[in-house]
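User: Could you write out the 3D structure of this protein bound to hydroxy diiron-OXO moiety? I've included everything you need below.
Assistant: Certainly. Input first, then the structure.
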Amino acid sequence: MISPKMADSLNKHMNLELFSAHLYLPMSSCANELGLKGAATWFLVQYQEEMIHFMKFYRYLVDQGINVTITASKAVPNKYKTLLEMFEKTLVHEQLITTCINELTEQAVKEKDHASQIFLQWFVTEQIEEENNDRDIIAKLKLVGSNGHGVLMVDNELGQRVFVAVPGATVPIQVM
Ligand code: OFO
């Protein structure tokens, strides 16, 4: 059993994870339009991962007997000038998610809600990886600057990313 206040905070964050998925899918199509097929793959995998994050919150809330509320997602941009801009926006968004996860964890500690603390631990660790990946890619993109050959090399590396389903998580979608 979780408190109504905790359920409300987790429900809000569940919607933010859905927003994350919606933010990254048009980045994939924009990268595709720019001819950056590797980045298009990277953001498609990012979208799939965010849908898993969303489903993890959904599953946890439902397993706690909560009837969830899905709020309409805001419109998101689908135009970016460069890959660097996309990754800088991605890092800023992931930093926001980290702050939200930390606040949820603090709330769970304050309420002595051990189940939610354990549930949130996975996300605390995940956010380190999310931010670190974005920082690495931004550093590489800054190194190559506007050198087309360099950008294509980074793009090729981004295309190696594959979606790995989280054990025990529901995969909501199949892409290709
Ligand atoms: Fe990108 O970690 Fe979820 O939102």
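Helices lie at 4-33, 37-63, 83-110, 114-144, 148-158.
User: Perfect, thank you.
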